[in-house]
Amino acid sequence: MSSILRQKINSELEQLPPKKLARVFRYIQAIKAAGEDGEIDILSLSHDEDLIRQVRKSRIEKSQDLGLSGMEGLEYLQQMITKYEQ
Asked: Which pLDDT score, from 0 to 100, does residue 56 have?
């Protein structure tokens, strides 16, 4: 995956509230588990209307200061990854 795409994904994840971030993480884990090569199917994610709706809503919440800061979101994601991997 290109570093630009990786940065864009990270930027979007940083804007998600904790509950939505956890849901996105579960999507990603399911896609990775389903793929034989372990690559995330970004094209499939880009067609997921529910995921797109959640990202749009998250952007609105972020503009109204209702979400986590970038660092808070990153810390939360790291905690979720650690918890999921255990």
From this structure: 86
